[in-house]
Structures are given as C-alpha cells and as structure tokens.
Design goal:
This protein has about 350 residues and is mainly α. Helices cover about 65% and strands about 5% of the residues. It has two domains: about 70 residues; about 250 residues, no CATH class.
C-alpha cells in the first residue's frame, strides 16, 4: 500500500471521528432530549475511528469521555426501565432441593464435601453451551451492533454477539449451580458442623498442600466462620487459590514459568483467561473446570473475583457469603481432582 493511500485512509478515519464528536456535542447540548445512551454510542464510535487512525491524543481524550457517558447511561437506563418480576423458583426448586439433600446425606462431613466436589453436573458444560448459543443467536445480532458494559462502565465486548450470548447462557446456568452449592454449604454448617476447624481438617486430610498454603487457608476460614469477616476471607482465598492452581499445575507437568520480555529473568505466570483456558491447562484439569475457574475468577463476563481483588475494585457488598462459598467450592474441587502418588512423574528429573 502506497504512502499516499495510507495517509488518505488515516484522513478519512480522522474525519469520521470528528463527525462523531460533532454528534456527541449536539447530543449533550440538547437539554430536553439529551440521552447519555446515545452520547456513549457517539463517544464509542469516535474512539473506534481514532484508534484505527492511531491518534494517541484523541484516543486518550475519547477513552475518558466514553467511560464517563457509559457510566451515566447505565444510571439513565436504571431510572427509565419499568419494574418487572419473574418467579423462576418453582421451575428449579425441586431439582435444587434434591441436590442439596443428596450432598448432605452422608454420615461424615468429609464424605459430603467429597461428593459435592465430584458432582460433575454442578460444572457447566462449556462446549454444549457454546454450541447452543451459536445455533440460537437472537435476530439483533444480525441487524445491530452489540456492546457490553460492566458494572464500572468499562466496555468489555464490542460487536461480539456470539461470545456474549455464550456467556449469557453460561451465567444463567452457573447462577443455579451457585445457588445449589451455597445451599449445600449452609446445610453442612447446620447439620454436619462445618466450621473453621472441620474445614481445615478436611484440607489437611488430603495431604496435598504445603504449610504456607495451609496457614493462609486457616486465616481465611477463621475470618469467614468465626469473625464473619468475608472481606478478609475473599482477599485471602482468591490469591491463595490462584497460587495453589499454579503450584499444583507445576507439579502436574504444566509449564507455568514466564520469561520477562527481552531479558533472561523469569517468574511464575499470572493466571488469566488466555492461559487458564489454554490447551496445556485444559488437558490436565479438564476444559469445563478451567472454563468455570476462568468465569468465576478472571473473565470479564463473570464476577472475576481474583482479578478484582488483585486490583482492589471489588465492592464491599460483593465480598459476601456467596463469594466465599464460590472460592471454597473451587478449593474442594481442586483437592479432589489431585491425588498423591508414591512417585510423582511430574517432578523434575536430573539430567543424565
């Protein structure tokens, strides 16, 4: 492509960006019919053109504006939507009660937790959900652009309807399972004496974790079960579980070492969507479990508990019993997926 044609394309993109800014200004100047939803759309469009043109000054300016008006548009939509209600409890109540009853029917707490961890139906089948979503895309995916904004106003999906629709279905299924899991934990506390001591005994009985990991978990259990401080529990459990996944993955033969770019220094990888859903992890831990970890801890479409605790962006009200239960469930799943062998083939061997 010639230099002249490249410059012509850039000029066209800049012109289109300026046109969107004009529309944004006109929208904001309208006192009676001003809509922050439309303002956000104009800001997003301008940002898209300036990004394609590589105008760093305009990119910085429009990123701030786009975020501002997306946040205002969310508030605007909350105020204008009419109140609705729907009772789906009747539809799923029998099945939920059956799962809770079965998971708490064993003689010992350890047996109950083992059964809960090994119950595969509580982990959504990502492949089936993605297939169903792709075959049942709504008409709006064909006739309109689709954007998704998170609770903080950030744009997390832009015109990727299939991915959004997949995680929309995944979320619906996961919410039912979380309700069931929370019900099991609540009943175990009432009937099987689940507390910080018995939970720690269960962890130690598996013989998998090191002393440092156990100390951190003990602190989290005390904060949750005794003190009632779920904020501390979430902030301790989420990085501890991430570290546990990395350390066990290393022992299971997964390459978890990252080399710093342009240097020979190295460190453990930082887990996220790209690596936890990669083939090296899914081949060992199973795709459905890896997808669940990704959704709950890292993915923009989920609660991303680990990501948000790492950045301090999780709200106080989100550090609740349900968040702790999610993390405890991931923990017991991990403990039941790994077993001790007499001689680990994943341990590094000396060079001969």
């Amino acid at each position: 492509m010639s230099k002249t044609s490249v410059e012509g394309k850039k000029d066209r993109l800049l012109r289109l960006g300026r046109e969107q800014e004009v529309r944004l200004k006109e929208e904001l100047s309208s006192q009676e019919n001003r809509s922050y939803v439309r303002a956000a759309a104009y800001a997003n469009a301008a940002l898209r053109y300036y990004t394609a043109a590589g105008d760093s000054k305009k990119i910085k300016e429009l990123k701030a504006k786009a975020l501002k008006y997306r946040q205002l548009s969310a508030s605007e939509l909350t105020q204008t939507l009419p109140p609705i209600s729907a009772d789906i409890q009747k539809v799923v109540n029998d099945e939920i009660c059956l799962v809770i009853k079965k998971c708490t029917s064993f003689d010992t707490l350890s047996e109950c937790l083992d059964y809960l961890a090994r119950l595969s139906r509580l982990v959504p089948n990502y492949g089936e959900i993605a297939k169903h979503a792709s075959e049942h895309l709504p008409l709006t995916s064909i006739i309109a652009n689709h954007t998704v904004i998170d609770s903080e106003g950030h744009l997390i999906s832009d015109d990727d309807e299939e991915n959004y629709w997949t995680y929309h279905h995944y979320d619906l299924e996961m919410q039912v399972y979380i309700y069931e899991i929370a019900g099991v934990f609540q009943k175990l506390r009432l009937e099987k004496d689940l507390n910080n001591v018995t939970m720690m005994d269960y962890v130690l009985s598996k013989g998998i974790l090191g002393s440092e990991e156990c100390v951190k978990l003990q602190s989290a259990f005390v904060n949750h079960f005794i003190v009632g401080d779920n904020i501390a529990a979430v902030y301790i459990l989420s990085p501890t579980i991430e570290g546990l996944i990395i350390s066990l993955s290393r022992r299971l033969g997964i390459d978890v070492v990252a080399q710093d770019r342009g240097r020979i220094t190295s460190r453990d990888i930082s887990l996220g969507t790209n690596n936890i859903t990669s083939e090296s992890f899914t081949n060992v831990w199973g795709e459905n479990f890896c997808r669940m970890i990704d959704y709950l801890l890292y993915n923009n479409f989920g609660p991303k508990l680990r990501h948000r605790t790492a950045h301090g962006s999780i709200s106080i009200k989100e550090c609740n019993d349900t968040s702790v239960v999610i993390l405890l469930y991931i923990l017991i799943k991990i403990l039941n997926l790994v077993r001790i062998t007499k001689k680990s083939t994943s341990e590094p061997q000396d060079d001969k």
